[in-house]
Amino acid sequence: MSDKTISLNVNGLSYTRTIEARMLLSDFLRQELGLTGTHVGCEHGVCGACTILLDGRSARSCLTLAVQAEDCEIETIEGQGEIDRLGRVQEAFRQHHGLQCGFCTPGFIMAITDLLRHHPLETDEQIREALSGNICRCTGYEHIVNAVRELASERGPIA
Amino acid sequence: MKPAQFDYAAPKTIEEAAALLAASNGDGKIIAGGQSLMPMINFRLVKPAILIDINRIEGLDRIELEGNRVRIGATVRHCRTATDPLISEHLPVVHEAMHHVAHMTVRNRGTFCGSVAHADPAAEMPMMTRFLDGTIVAFSVRGERRIPAAEFFVGSLVNSLEPDELVTAVEIDAIPPDAGWGFEEFAKRHGDFALACFATTLRAVGGRAKDVRVGMMGVGETPMRLREIEDIVDGTDVSDMMLDEVAKRLTDILTPNTDIHASADYRRHLSGVLARRALRAAWGRANGKGLDA
């Protein structure tokens, strides 16, 4: 009764799948599409590990149903770069030692991708507030802030 | 940590959504942003038979000025309310409050009306709606019903909607242009739910406070408008002596909970501190002292 067929775009590729209505977008990405870079931490919207971009804005994929993403454009960590050709945010994390265990990193990188497009990030206070929805349990925040500060300064002010 | 089974529909019109909700006989839930509902569904605290997604209904994503009222549609997200020029011009205290709401990623999805319907006693949107005497516009197969905020927030996470009604908008009267406002919230981390929060609007007429509104949240089962405190402030010049009286009166009338985050005594003390700051800020703004607005 509750199976739905959906079509959506993930990292520029179109997919069509038949799924249960209750399937979370996080589980859809990992189990149906094999995109396991999106990590699942708390599954109730607190930790930020599952952050993806939904039509260009960051969203918790554990608080979004896959059926809700019908006809939407999704971006995940897999769309950011390759092992031998990192995306710009990934490269900044590497340079600044912005990750330790790496579990939270995909969520941070997707959140930061949205922040760089839409938020001023002019002061450390703004950067820290902007990052406050993502938890790093290695507590490596200083290095993440350093990476974002560099990314924001090379981006410059937003309109 | 995974939802129980449910059916799902994404209607294109409000009428269709209302019909689906009515047909569910009380077992349907409306979803917009889902930032409060989805955690409850993931934990199976809520097990709807059908989830009715209103995100595909056109026209609900608008903030409009109708006469002197600001109307916020059911799918207007926090990131929009926080930056909309109609809100900052006509409801500056709401504009300020929005910057205390959750985190960026949650603001991208969560909606003003959804938060009002969720009726968390420590969330900014219900508090703003209650203290500014807003109107909740509900819709069902029986038609539209307008519910004053004073009758909407019944208890913690409990509203006065009928099982077949959904919220289509919240309307709030614009604050007079000469009014000052104050908003003071304390949470352990920015974006967390408030331990206590005090908001006020008032006008300065001939050196005296007039048309005083006072609201609080985080210190009761519902967001509150506090007439007793308004009566103390009204007609005074917002002196230190009056602020002492406000703080004392708050200690007498508030009955907050003790929980893992703070004791009742701490919340009462905090309420007085926040009241002083907010009333001073509002008085300064009403007198054109150019606070950092």
Structure write-up:
The complex is a heterodimer of chains A (159) and B (293). By secondary structure, chain A is an alpha+beta fold. Chain A has 2 domains: 3-78, Beta-grasp domain (Ubiquitin-like (UB roll), Roll), CATH 3.10.20; 88-155, DNA polymerase, domain 1 (Orthogonal Bundle), CATH 1.10.150. Chain A contains 5 helices and 5 strands. Chain A has a 5-stranded mixed sheet, with helices on both faces. In chain A, strand 3 (51-54) and strand 4 form a beta hairpin. In chain A, helix 2 (88-95) crosses helix 5 (141-155). Chain A is globular, with a radius of gyration of 16 Å. The mean pLDDT of chain A is 96. In chain B, helix 7 (112-118) packs across helix 8 and helix 10 packs antiparallel against helix 11. In chain B, the strands form 4 sheets. Chain B has a 5-stranded antiparallel sheet. In chain B, 35% of the residues lie in helices and 25% in strands. The model of chain B has no long low-confidence stretch (mean pLDDT 95). Chain B has helices spanning 14-23, 37-42, 78-81, 85-90, 92-98, 104-109, 112-118, 124-131, 149-152, 227-233, 240-253, 264-286; strands spanning 7-9, 28-31, 50-53, 63-66, 69-73, 135-140, 143-148, 153-155, 158-159, 166-173, 180-186, 196-205, 208-217, 224-225. The radius of gyration of chain B is 19 Å and the shape is globular. Chain B has 293 residues and is of the alpha+beta class. Chain B has 3 domains: 7-53, 2-Layer Sandwich (Uridine Diphospho-n-acetylenolpyruvylglucosamine Reductase, domain 2); 63-173, Uridine Diphospho-n-acetylenolpyruvylglucosamine Reductase, domain 3, CATH 3.30.465.10; 180-286, Enolase-like, domain 1 (2-Layer Sandwich). Chain B contains 12 helices and 14 strands. The A-B interface holds A 1-2, 4, 20-22, 24, 27, 43-45, 48, 51, 54, 57-60, 62-65, 67-68, 70, 111, 114-115, 119, 129-130, 132-134 and B 1-8, 10, 31, 34-35, 38-39, 42-43, 51, 53, 55, 79, 102-106, 108-109, 189-191.
